Amino acid sequence: MAATKRKLAGDVKSLSLAPKGKLRIEWANQWMPVLQLIRKRFQKEKPLKGVRVSACLHVTSETANLAITLRDGGADVVLCASNPLSTQDDVAASLVKDYGIPTYAITGENKKTYYSHLVSALEHKPQITMDDGADLVTMILSKRHDLLPGILGGTEETTTGVIRLRSMANDGVLKFPIVAVNDADTKHFFDNRYGTGQSTLDGILRATNVLLAGLKVVIVGYGWCGRGVAMRAKGMGSDVIITEINPTKALEAIMDGFRVMPIAEASKVGDVFVTVTGNKNVIAGQHFRQMKDGAIVANSGHFNVEIDIPALEKLANSKRRTRDFVDEYTLPNGRKVYLLGEGRLINLAAAEGHPAVVMDMSFADQALSAEYMVKNAKNLEAKVYPVPADIDQNVAKLKLKSLGVNIDTLTPEQAKYLASWSEGT
Ligand SMILES: NC(=O)c1ccc[n+]([C@@H]2O[C@H](COP(=O)([O-])OP(=O)(O)OC[C@H]3O[C@@H](n4cnc5c(N)ncnc54)[C@H](O)[C@@H]3O)[C@@H](O)[C@H]2O)c1
């Protein structure tokens, strides 16, 4: 452990920002009652005592509360950013100054600094990794095999990371167990749908201040996030168009009351485009050429590869920044296309990410999955595991309790009826 104590102060924009960050962390905490309950238990039981945790997550006020919870559970935590644009610099400063949690994250950091921060987080020699997009695991498996003997396991926060890790497991490349926090019902039902749904529009509005009512909003991908964005855009009066590659999801979008068409058609009619697929180049060069003058293009999927930005750069005659988070590209046909937040997660780049009340459940799943991993790692293989059902159910129960909502329980007769194949005649 001594080796990890060296230069653990972290790397943040300025420690003078800490007072504002502390207020933000405390504000988020008020909206995270489930995590508060877990923290209280962790303070007493110390289930993570002495466990080194390296977490690569969006450095926001909600994440700060997770890091504090893990620390209160006895963990030795360091944090680095999982995205160069999503860091709240004041929160990062407060984590270092007020909570003594080494944090490596500066908004707008370039690629080199971003990766040097991952390197710093790994110098902590983690026993547990916590990722949002599998960057730590990828770096360990490609460059830091020396760390493998000390690693118990890890957790993964988002859809894209889980997909990457599953393919690593299938190819036999993954070397330690991972819990897919994203796949917990109490995570993606709420975080991806309601959290991304609301905050993506928040990011687009803060960046542009457009009136969504009456605009044609094209949503590329009707998964958990896409449904959330569509639902909220509809609520704000937009004419929502969905593009999909999955026939079932496309059908669902139709029955939810949306128009569905290929991106080649949608690109001609849309005013605002939002990508949420976890895939690459879903809006490509030929689509930009067809867009209306003034079209706004944003991404809320994990990586900045959903929009083919190199194609847009190549196509455009000129580019200028017209507002914070808004780049105007003038195309050879004279039309202008506006790319928001350099194609990075717009809800984190231009807004504040998910509301704390949603992250409460996701991070409750994270904290309990870390505890589960510490207790069970020796019995797990190098695979991607679901969050155990009892953790998922428990998080939902605690959340309901915090909302003051009671629900019914099965009567013994109903439990017997549901459990037996011979009942029901
Ligand atoms: N912005 C955030 O804060 C935030 C939060 C959670 C998840 N995410 C990220 O958002 C992305 C989507 O997550 P999700 O949970 O909705 O995933 P999901 O798997 O539920 O949905 C993705 C959808 O995109 C569709 N799709 C794939 N390629 C497509 C294409 N070329 N054209 C149209 N549709 C296509 C798929 O069929 C699927 O329905 C992931 O990258 C995830 O990591 C972001």
Describe this structure in words.
It is a single chain. The protein has 425 residues and is of the alpha/beta class. Helices cover 45% and strands 16% of the residues. The protein is built from 17 helices and 16 strands. The strands form 2 sheets. An 8-stranded parallel sheet has the order 1-4-3-2-5-6-7-16, with helices on both faces. An 8-stranded mixed sheet has the order 10-9-8-11-12-15-14-13, with helices on both faces. A hairpin with a 2-residue loop joins strand 13 and strand 14. The N and C termini lie far apart (63 Å). The site of nicotinamide-adenine-dinucleotide (NAD) has 29 residues, from helix 7, helix 8 and helix 9.
Could you give a short account of the major beta sheet? Answer: 8 strands, parallel
Count of DSSP E strands?
16
Small-molecule binders here are: nicotinamide-adenine-dinucleotide
Shape: globular
Taking the alpha carbons of the first and last residues, their distance comes to 63 Å
Question: Which strand order does the major sheet show?
Answer: 1-4-3-2-5-6-7-16
Stretches where pLDDT is under 50 for at least 5 consecutive residues are 1-8
Structural class: alpha/beta
> Considering DSSP H and I runs of 4 or more, what fraction of the residues is helical?
40-55%
What would you report as the Rg, rounded to the nearest angstrom? 22 Å
Task: Describe the secondary-structure layout.
Elements: E1 10-11, H1 18-30, H2 33-45, E2 52-57, H3 61-72, E3 76-81, H4 89-97, E4 103-104, H5 111-122, E5 128-131, H6 135-143, E6 153-156, H7 159-170, E7 178-180, H8 185-208, E8 216-220, H9 224-235, E9 239-243, H10 247-255, E10 259-260, H11 263-269, E11 272-275, H12 285-290, E12 295-299, H13 309-315, E13 318-323, E14 326-330, E15 336-340, H14 346-349, H15 356-376, E16 384-386, H16 389-403, H17 412-419
Parallel strand pairs: 1-4, 2-3, 2-5, 3-4, 5-6, 6-7, 7-16, 8-9, 8-11, 9-10, 11-12, 12-15
Antiparallel strand pairs: 13-14, 14-15
Helix pairs in contact: 1-3, 1-4, 2-3, 2-15, 3-15, 5-6, 8-9, 8-15, 15-16
